[in-house]
Amino acid sequence: MDLQRVVDAYVIGIGESQDNTELLNKLVTHISAGDTSLLELVQALGDHLASDEATRRSRGTHILSDVLGELPAAAVPARATTMLTQFFCARLGDATCVPQTLRALMALLRLPAFTSQYAIDVVSALFKEVHVQSFQQSTRSTAYSLLQTVVDGYPKAVQSIGDDFVLGFAQALDGEKDPRSLMVAFELVPRIIELVDIEKYAEDLFDNRDGDPSAISPEALKRALRACIAGSPYFGELAVKPLVSKTTATSVSAKIDAYETLAAGARVYEPSVFLPRMEALVDQIREEVFMAADEDVVRAALGTLEAVYAVISVPPASAKPCAMEEDATPLDYILKEASIQLTADEIKNPEEVGRILRAAAKSSSYNCAIVTDAILPVIAERLSSTEVLTVRRQLIDVLNHVLPPVPLDKEYSVLHMVRLKGITLLVLLPGLLTDNEAAVALTPNVNKEATHLLVQLSLARHELVSKVVLPKLIEALTADTVAASKVARLLDVLGAVAVASRSLVATIVTSICEVLITGLQPAFRVAAMTTVRKIIDATLAAKSDPELVTHLAASVMQPVAQWMLQLVGQQESVPLPLVVEFAKCEVALFSNLDAAAQEKTGEYWFDTYRSVIVDASNAQAEAKSLLPLWRFLIVAAFLGDLSHAALATENAIQRDACFEIISSVVNKTKDAKVRAQLVQTVLDKAVSADSPADPLVLLHQWIARALVTCNDRLGYDSVRWLFGLIDAKSELSTQAAEGFSVILGDHDWSVTKPTHGVFRLLFKQRFYATVLPEITARFNAATDDVTKAAFLVVLTNVIRHMPKSVLMNGIETVVPLLLSAVRPDPRRAELCLWMLDALQKSEANTVDVRRAALETLALVPEKYDIGVLHSVRHTILKVLTKTRDDHKRLVRLDAVRGYNKWLNFGDV
Amino acid sequence: MNITQKINDAPLVYEVESLERRIQATDLDDSHADPIDRDEVYELIRNINDPEHPLTLEQLHVTNREHVFVADSASHVLVEFTPTIPHCSMATLIGLCIRVRLLRSLPERFKVDIRVRSGTHQSEAQVNKQLNDKERVAAALENTYLLDVVNQCLATAA
C-alpha cells in the first residue's frame, strides 16, 4: 500500500465531503495488521499536520482522529499513546483543529495505556486552551462527553485537579443553551459534586440570573416564536392545522398561546388556509366561551375569532345586492347557532351568545352588517311577540352584550354606532318596552355607547331619565358592594348627562351631593366631588343663568361645607384631594356670584376660619386638613385682586409693592399645581384688567423671578412672553430687555434668601442653559438693529448675574454675540486706508510724503488695539508688500519696518 | 528653545564695523532709482539674533557683507553664511531665520538662495538642500513653536 497516496486521497476526500469509509478501513486494517505503523501514518500526514494553512492542519488532524477512533486498543502502542496525548493536548490551542482533536482525545481516553496523569493534562489543556462556547453544538457536546469520560474513568485525576476542575467546568458550561449539551452537562454535575468539594465555586455553578439584563422570560420567547410563525404567508398552510388542534390542549397557557398565534397569523396568512378548519375552530371557541373556564382563554379565543373573521369574511369583489343572503358566508357557523339559541324557548347563556356575536361583528364593518342584519331582526321580532318577562330580559341581555365595546377609533364605528343606536331607540320607543324595562336595558351598561344613548335620551325625554334612570344610577352608587370601576363609570355617566342636559344639572348635582353626605363610601368621595366640580366647570363655561349659580352655591355647596366641618368636629380628617376639589367648586361658584352674595360667602368663610382655626385653642390636626379651602379662597379673592390693583394704580410704589408680594407668595407656594393655578389667576386678572401694558411687563418679570428661582417651568413661559415682546419690536422691548436684571438680580427683600425665598439648587445654571440658546437663535433671526440691541441687553443682564463657572459653558456662543456688539470706530480704520493713498507713486507723493505716510502707518499698531484695526490689517499688509519694491531705498526701508510691525500686530 | 547644553559654549565675538550710509541728495530725488544692492540686503540680515546667544549674526561673523550677492536686474539674491563650528546643529535654523527675514523684507520678485559657505559645515549639502526647498520651509513655518523661535531671532532685526 502506498501510504502517502492513500493519505492524499483521504485529504482530498475530506475536502470534497466524500465518503471516505473505504480509505479509513484500509488504513485501519493495515495498521492493525502491523503492515504499517502509526508512526508511519503520522509521518505521511506530517506535511498536513505542520502546515501553515488552517484547513490543511484541520484535515490532517481529521484523518488522525478518524484512524484513532477506529483502531483497536491493542494496535496503539503505549509509547504512541503518550506522544499522541501530548500532541493533541498541544493541538487544542489550534482553534480550527479543536473538533477533530476532541474526537481523537476521546479515542485515546479508552486506551489502557492512558493514565490519570494524561487525563489531568488533557483536562487542564481543555480548560486552558478551548473556549467551549465558541464552538458549534457537536463540538461542545464532544467536550462535555470528554469531561464525562474523564469523570467516569479517572476520578482520581478529577480529585487532584480539584477546584480548578469545577471552575473550568463552570466556565465551559457558562451560557450553554442547547438541551442536548445540557443533558450531558447536568448528568455530570452530580458526579463532580461527589468527587470534588464545590463549596468555593457553588456560586459559579449555581449562577442566579435574576439581575441579568439579558434574562429571557418564557413570554419573550413565545412572542419571538410567534413573530417567526406569523412571519410569512407561506407558513400558513403548515401552521394553522397544528395550531387549531393545539387549542384543544388542556393547559391554559398553551391554549392562550395557540389562540394568540392564530390571531397573529391571521393578519399574514392567506384566508384560504383558515376556511377548511373554520368549523372546528369556531366549535372550539364556542366551547371555550360557554364553558368559561378561564377569562384569559375566553378573551384570547374571541380575539382570534375577530382576527380570523376580519380576513376570511370580506365583501365579495363584485357587489351583488342580494348575494349576501344567498351565499354562504364563513359567519354562518356562528349565525346559525345564534339563531337557534335566540329562538329557543329559553335563551341559555345570553351573555356568551352576545359575546361571540360581538367578536364576529367587531371584525369589520362588513361582518358587522351581516351580524346585525341576521340577529337584530330576530331579537326585535321576538321582543315584540313574546310576553314572557324572562325571555324579554334575556333578549335584552344578548343585545347588551352585542352592543358595547366597539372601539371608537375603528373606521366603521360610526356606522356601527348609528345602527345600534337606531335599534336601541327602537327598543326604547314608547309602547314597545315599559319604562322599567328601558331602565333595565340601560342601567347595566354604563359604558361609552350607553352613556351616549343616555345623553341622547336625556335631551329628548329628560323627565324619563330623571324619573327612572337617575334614581337607579344614584342607587347603584350607594350599593354596598359596588366596584370602584363601576362607581367611576356611573359618575362619568352622571357627569355626561348633566353636561348635556342643562335642565338636569341641579338635580344631578344635588343628588350627588346628597349621596356624598349621606351614604357614599369614603373611598369614592373624592371621585364624586370631582364629578361635581367638572359639572360646575362645564356649566359655568356655558354661561349659565345666575339663578342656577346662586342655587348651586346656597343650597348645594353649603350643605357639603357644613358636612365637612361636621366631620372635622367629629375628629375625622377630610382627605386633601376632597378639600381641594371642594375648594375649586367653591372658588368657581364664588367668582360667578353677584357682589352681595360674594360678600355673604366671604363673611361666612372668614367666620368659619375664625371659629375653626383661630378661636379653637390649639386647633385640631383634623381642622387643619381644611386649610387648603381658605388658601383657594385667598388665591381667588386676594391675589387676583392684588394683581388687578397693581395694574390699575399709577403709583409706582404701590405697584412695586403689589408685585413683590405676588412674587413672594408665588415663590413660597410649595405645591406646583397650586402655584400654577396662582400664576394663572394672577395673569388672567392682569390681562383682563385692560390696563396699560408696561406694568404687565413688570408683572411678568416678577413672576418669572418667583418661578425661575424655584425651578418651575412656568417661569420660562413668562420669559418667552418677554422675548415675544422684543421680537415684535414692541415699544416695551427695551423695558422687557432691561427687566432681566429683575429676574436674576438681587433684591432687598422680595424673593431673596434672607427672607426665606425658595431657591432651588442650580436654578441659574438651568436658566442659563434654557434661555441662552433662545437668545442666540432670536438674535440671529432678528433683522433690525433695535431688536438685536435689545437681545444684547438681555444677554448682558443675564451674564452679569451668572457665576463664572456657568458662563464657561457655552462661552463659544456668547463671545461672538458680544463681539458683534463691539463695533470698531470706522473712522480709525478709514484713516489708515487714506494713508495708503499716500504710498502710491505720483508727483504729489514725493519720497518724503511716502516716508511720512509709512512712519505714521508704523505708529498705528502701537497706538490702537487689534480689535479696532483688524479689519484693515490685511489690506495694509498687501499694500506694504508692494511698497517694499519702491524704487527708492529709503522708502523701502521704511516699508520693511512698517510691514514687520503690521505683520506682528495682534499675533502676540 | 530650551537649550540646556549649548552647541558652541564660547563663540568668538568680533567687533562690528559701522555700516551706516549717509543720506545723499540722490536718495531723495524721485527721478533717480536706487537699485537694491549688497549693503541694503546685508543691512536687513546683520542684526538677526543668534538662536543660542544674545549676539547678532554679524557679531559672530555668521553673516558677512562679502558673502551677500545681489543682482537687482535679475531679481536674485544669494546669501552665504558661516556656522560658528562645523558641526553646528543650529545651521538650519539660522538659515531659516535669514530666509524668513528676506521673505518679509525683499520685494516679492526676488529669488533668494541661502547657502552654508562652502567647507564650513560637515553636512553642508544637506543643510543647503533643506534651506532651499520651498515646501520644507513652508512646512517649518507651519510649526508654531519653530515660528516662535524664528520670530524671537528676528525681533532685533526689524
UniProtKB/TrEMBL annotation, chain A:
<keyword id="KW-0539">Nucleus</keyword>
<dbReference type="InterPro" id="IPR039920">
    <property type="entry name" value="MMS19"/>
</dbReference>
<dbReference type="InterPro" id="IPR024687">
    <property type="entry name" value="MMS19_C"/>
</dbReference>
<keyword id="KW-0677">Repeat</keyword>
<dbReference type="Pfam" id="PF12460">
    <property type="entry name" value="MMS19_C"/>
</dbReference>
<comment type="similarity">
    <text>Belongs to the MET18/MMS19 family.</text>
</comment>
<dbReference type="GO" id="GO:0005634">
    <property type="term" value="C:nucleus"/>
</dbReference>
<dbReference type="InterPro" id="IPR016024">
    <property type="entry name" value="ARM-type_fold"/>
</dbReference>
<dbReference type="GO" id="GO:0051604">
    <property type="term" value="P:protein maturation"/>
</dbReference>
<dbReference type="InterPro" id="IPR029240">
    <property type="entry name" value="MMS19_N"/>
</dbReference>
<comment type="function">
    <text>Key component of the cytosolic iron-sulfur protein assembly (CIA) complex, a multiprotein complex that mediates the incorporation of iron-sulfur cluster into apoproteins specifically involved in DNA metabolism and genomic integrity. In the CIA complex, MMS19 acts as an adapter between early-acting CIA components and a subset of cellular target iron-sulfur proteins.</text>
</comment>
<dbReference type="Pfam" id="PF14500">
    <property type="entry name" value="MMS19_N"/>
</dbReference>
<feature type="domain" description="MMS19 N-terminal">
    <location>
        <begin position="42"/>
        <end position="290"/>
    </location>
</feature>
<protein>
    <recommendedName>
        <fullName>MMS19 nucleotide excision repair protein</fullName>
    </recommendedName>
</protein>
<dbReference type="GO" id="GO:0006281">
    <property type="term" value="P:DNA repair"/>
</dbReference>
<keyword id="KW-0227">DNA damage</keyword>
<dbReference type="GO" id="GO:0016226">
    <property type="term" value="P:iron-sulfur cluster assembly"/>
</dbReference>
<feature type="domain" description="MMS19 C-terminal">
    <location>
        <begin position="635"/>
        <end position="895"/>
    </location>
</feature>
<keyword id="KW-0234">DNA repair</keyword>
<dbReference type="GO" id="GO:0097361">
    <property type="term" value="C:cytosolic [4Fe-4S] assembly targeting complex"/>
</dbReference>
From TrEMBL, chain B:
<dbReference type="InterPro" id="IPR039796">
    <property type="entry name" value="MIP18"/>
</dbReference>
<dbReference type="GO" id="GO:0051604">
    <property type="term" value="P:protein maturation"/>
</dbReference>
<dbReference type="GO" id="GO:0007059">
    <property type="term" value="P:chromosome segregation"/>
</dbReference>
<dbReference type="Pfam" id="PF01883">
    <property type="entry name" value="FeS_assembly_P"/>
</dbReference>
<dbReference type="InterPro" id="IPR034904">
    <property type="entry name" value="FSCA_dom_sf"/>
</dbReference>
<dbReference type="GO" id="GO:1990229">
    <property type="term" value="C:iron-sulfur cluster assembly complex"/>
</dbReference>
<protein>
    <submittedName>
        <fullName>DUF59-domain-containing protein</fullName>
    </submittedName>
</protein>
<dbReference type="InterPro" id="IPR002744">
    <property type="entry name" value="MIP18-like"/>
</dbReference>
<feature type="domain" description="MIP18 family-like">
    <location>
        <begin position="38"/>
        <end position="114"/>
    </location>
</feature>
<keyword id="KW-0159">Chromosome partition</keyword>
<dbReference type="GO" id="GO:0140535">
    <property type="term" value="C:intracellular protein-containing complex"/>
</dbReference>
<comment type="similarity">
    <text>Belongs to the MIP18 family.</text>
</comment>
